[in-house]
Amino acid sequence: MASEDEEFTMLFQDFYPSLCRFLECLLGGRAPLAQDLAQESFLQLHRTAWGTLPVGEARFWLYRVARNLAINEFRKSNTRYRLFDRVVEVMRPRARNPEQEYEAQERNAMVLEMLQTLPEDQRAALLLREQEQLSYREIGQVLNISESKVKVDIFRARASLRERWSKLSGLSRVVGIGN
Amino acid sequence: MNCSFTEKISLLIDGELSPVEAREVERHLLTCGECELLRADFLNLRSQITSFETSLQPKVQNRALKQILARRRRAAVGGLQWNFGTQALAFATLLIVAAVIGFVAYQQSNQRERKEVAVVQTPSPAPAATVEPARSPEVKESPEPVNGGTKSEPAPNKGNEEKSPRPTKRPIVREPKPGEQFAAIPDRVRSADAETMTAIHFETSERLLLAFKNVRLNEPSAAQEVSYERKRAKQLVYQNMLLKREADAAGDVQVSSLLENLEPILIDIANLPDQPDEDTVRAIRERVERKNIVGLLRVNSTALARALD
Q1: Res. B153 pLDDT band, cuts 50 70 90
Q2: In percent, how much of chain A has pLDDT > 70?
Q3: What CATH architecture is A98-179?
Q4: Where are the domains of chain B?
Q5: What is the ipTM score, two decimals?
Q6: Is this prediction's pTM over 0.90?
Q7: Contact at 8 Å (CB) between B44 and A177?
Q8: Chosen from A7, A18, A35, A114 to mutate, greatest number of chain B CBs within 10 A
């Protein structure tokens, strides 16, 4: 039991923040909900698949379950979470100076806003690629789609985001990095 | 995005192209400004998306981990309890069923035994004068010297009771001739009910044999007395058979042997004619005395009664 807990704790420490970020971007913010769903994903992993699943597969399993949970949440009313998110945002401690914090918040808000313009399947595929650095094959396993669809979805998501950001103010100038 | 390489730019930055294809796209990028700008924009998008910071705080993460582990342990304990409960329930059900069956069987056998005891203990008009007064516990008579061989009569108040060995919990029946079948020590113990029945049977049989010994054939009431002994013997024969079967089943060799010796005597008495001749009665009496049946019955009934006390 102890060694199982240790292994699980290691997995949790490694992937819980990433899963929270993935879910937060997928849900368009709503950090508490994202954290709850991430926790629920780990809980389900432990209840149903832990010990029977190969260690390398656990990560993909987690993202698959988390995404399904997020899709379920899309169908529910989110008023309560929006209100709660605002409260949490206000209560969040400021580790950096106010200017840095403001810039980070603005950047996060912009990313979330832009990601929300994408269809869910494209958004999930793009997030798994960009944030979690999964291969197309792995993304296909997580999302239960073919590699060809992954390729198309990711390209369309990028193209869509690029066009939208270019319309706003020009991607390169807004971001100010990468050149 | 009119260039045919645009989609491959996405694959290129994701490392999903083969080396040959990647070199081809890289060469194209040197000459195609549109594709080069596209790659830069895609990489900028990547930077923006990966720079997204989750609002997760360490204490929230730790709390989540604790909750998951705690829930898991509770679930494990609950599962164990449920599993154990199911097994325990099944086992308890089996025990209850077995107990009910055993209780019913015990009740039925008990009722049978009560009926048999009632038959055995029916008030016997045995002539008190003919029965030895040895029933009172104060009179510690030894009916027969335990190792006395084949002496003719039980000698009441002979005064050798202190020398006679105290019967143990399992009565040791000594055959008049040493080295016979009573040497074996029983290795199985019968139930208290069976021992009670046996003790009562021995006592009743002893009383019958004593009464039979004292019947005076030359008196007018001899026929009536013999009639009573005959009737009593018929009842005891059946009881004797049952108890012998039970003793055999229980492996009690001593009691079984004694019952085996008693049985033909009871049968002979039961089969006596209404007006038995003196020789027949004497033959039965001599056989009883020769086998020391009365003494063995008394020793064993007393021992069984003490053991039951």
Answers
A1: very low
A2: 80
A3: Orthogonal Bundle (1.10)
A4: 6-50, 133-308
A5: 0.77
A6: no
A7: yes
A8: A35
